[in-house]
Structure formats: structure tokens, C-alpha cells
């Protein structure tokens, strides 16, 4: 008679353990998806980082009196290099600044017809544009992975297991500068 209640209790303990293991494994899987998504963003950011010196060399010959814009891109690229090993929010801010500096560089380049006609510049501009699109898609994928992870960490019963095993909320890749949220002004006059 004592064996049946013991078997029921043992069965409940085994079911609870399987439940906890299932949630734990899904949390680990989501955490790894976030890391993989960030790695994809990082690959594209590195690609952009590597393209900038070639773009700068091509532009320098044409834009002799746009030193401020060129220095802004150089400084922004350096800050990205310095933030590479740091925390994610510092890296995101540095990358945001680099994106803005590159946008200014490409906007200023419109005033130089010889530069716009240069095949090197056009190829680099196309490559940079393609890379920016890939960065955008990688950021979107990263933020989706972060949302899935954060939902699991915050929702019941995952929040209990997440708390027991020290799973933490991940950081979304967000724009630091409010100016980047505004639509650009285009003037064809």
C-alpha cells in the first residue's frame, strides 16, 4: 500500500524535473540564438568597418576642403574599434555614431561630380549600401531573438526557472540618437 503513493510522488517529481529541464533547455537555446544573432550583426559591422578605409582613400583625393567630415568618419571608426571589446551598449552607441558619420560623408559627396563618376567610389558606395542593408536585417534578426529570450525570461513559468539559473534580460539594439529616427530631408533643387 505504501508503494503506490511513493510511486505517485516519484512520478510527480520526475515530471517536474522534466518540466524544469525543458524550460532550462529552451532558455539556453534562446540565449544561444541571441549570441548567434549578435555575431551576425558583428560580422556585418566588421565588414563595414573594413570598407571605410578604402572609401576614405577614394574620397580624400576629391574632397580636400571637407576635412571636418572626413575627420568625423575617422574618429567614429576609431571609437568603434575602441568599443569592440567593451559592453554591448557602448558598442551600439559607437556603431550608431559611425553610421551617422558615413551618412554625412555620402551626403557631402553629392557635391563632387568627379567623385560621383569615379568607378572606385561607385563600387565602394554600392558595397557600403549593401552592407548597411545587411546590417539592418541582422539588427532586426537580433532584436527578434532578444524579444523571444526576454519573453521567456519574464513570463511564467520561465521566469521562475530563469531566476533559479541566473538568466538575464538581453539588450535590444536601439538607436541612441533621436536624429536617426527622423526622416531625412531630400532637396533636389
Question: What's the Cα radius of gyration?
Answer: 24 Å
Q: Which series of helices and strands comes N to C?
A: HHHHHH
Helix content: over 70%
* Terminal CA distance: 93 Å
CATH superfamily label = LemA-like domain
The overall pLDDT, averaged over residues, is 84
Count of runs of 4 or more consecutive helical residues: 6
User: What is CATH's topology name?
Assistant: de novo design (two linked rop proteins)
CATH architectural category: Up-down Bundle
Strand content: under 5%
Number of strands: 0
Describe this structure in words.
By secondary structure, the protein is mostly helical. The protein has one domain: de novo design (two linked rop proteins) (Up-down Bundle), CATH 1.20.1440.20. It contains six helices and no strands. It has helices at residues 3-60, 67-83, 88-109, 113-117, 119-154, 158-164.
Question: Secondary-structure map with pairings?
Answer:
Layout: H1 3-60, H2 67-83, H3 88-109, H4 113-117, H5 119-154, H6 158-164
Helix pairs in contact: 1-2, 1-5, 2-3
Amino acid at each position: 500500500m505504501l508503494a503506490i503513493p511513493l510511486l505517485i510522488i516519484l512520478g510527480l517529481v520526475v515530471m517536474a524535473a522534466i518540466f524544469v529541464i525543458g524550460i532550462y533547455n529552451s532558455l539556453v537555446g534562446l540565449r544561444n540564438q541571441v549570441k548567434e544573432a549578435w555575431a551576425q550583426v558583428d560580422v556585418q559591422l566588421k565588414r563595414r568597418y573594413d570598407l571605410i578605409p578604402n572609401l576614405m582613400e577614394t574620397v580624400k583625393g576629391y574632397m580636400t576642403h571637407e576635412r571636418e567630415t572626413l575627420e568625423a568618419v575617422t574618429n567614429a571608426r576609431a571609437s568603434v574599434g575602441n568599443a569592440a571589446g567593451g559592453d554591448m551598449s557602448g558598442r551600439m552607441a559607437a556603431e550608431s555614431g559611425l553610421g551617422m558619420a558615413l551618412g554625412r560623408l555620402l551626403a557631402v559627396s553629392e557635391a563632387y561630380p568627379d567623385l560621383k563618376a569615379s568607378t572606385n567610389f561607385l563600387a565602394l558606395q554600392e558595397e557600403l549600401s549593401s552592407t548597411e542593408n545587411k546590417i539592418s536585417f541582422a539588427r532586426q534578426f537580433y532584436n527578434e531573438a532578444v524579444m523571444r529570450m526576454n519573453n521567456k525570461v519574464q513570463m511564467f513559468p520561465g521566469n521562475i526557472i530563469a531566476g533559479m539559473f541566473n538568466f538575464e534580460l538581453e539588450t535590444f539594439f536601439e538607436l541612441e540618437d533621436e536624429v536617426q529616427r527622423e526622416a531625412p530631408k531630400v532637396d533636389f533643387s
